[in-house]
Amino acid sequence: MPSQLFPRLVIVHAILIVMLIMNSSSFVQAQKSGPAAQGNPCLSPYKNKPVPDKILKAIVESHGQWLDQRYNQDDRRADLCQADLRQAALDEANLERANLEGAILRQANLRQSNYPKRVWPEPISQKRS
Q1: pLDDT band for position 6 (50/70/90)?
Q2: pTM to 2 decimals?
Q3: What does each C-alpha distance from 6 to 1, 3, 16, 100, 127 come to in angstroms?
Q4: Is the dihedral of CA 40, 43, 50, 60 positive or negative?
Q5: Which residues contact 25 (CB under 8 A, 6 or more apart)?
Q6: Per-residue b or e along 56-84, where b marks 16 or more CB atoms closer than 10 Å to that residue's CB
Q7: Of 44, 62, 57, 54, which is closest to residue 104 (Cα–Cα)?
Q8: What does the pLDDT average to over 34-62?
Q9: Which of 40, 33, 34, 49 is nearest to 82 (CA)?
Q10: Interacting residues of 103 by C-beta distance below 8 A, sequence separation 6+
C-alpha cells in the first residue's frame, strides 16, 4: 500500500507546484499592468514633483468641497497621482475618492485623515453640561 501512495503524492505535489508557479506569474503580470497600463495614465500636473504646501492645502480644500457639495462643477477632485507628498501635512484631510495612486506618502502626516472633526461627536467625558 505505501508503495502505491508515494507516486500519487509526487503527482499531487507536482500539480501544486505548477499551480503556484502559474498563479505567481499572473500576479506579477497584474502588478506590471496597473491602471496606467489599462488606459488610466496619470495626468496630474504634480506627477513626480513635490506639491508646495499652499497649493496642497488649496487642492485638499477644493476636494473637500467637491465631496460635500455632491461633485460641484466649481470644485475639483484631488488628482495627486504619483505626486511627491513626503512630509505633507494631510492631517484631518478628507481624502475620500482622491486620486493618490502611486503618490509618495513617506512621512506624510495622515493622522485622522478622511475623518474630519465635525463627523466625530465629543467623547461623553468631555461634553459640557
Answers
A1: confident
A2: 0.59
A3: 9, 6, 15, 52, 71
A4: negative
A5: none
A6: beebbebbbebbeeeeeeeeeebbbbbbb
A7: 44
A8: 85
A9: 49
A10: 80, 81, 82, 83, 84, 85
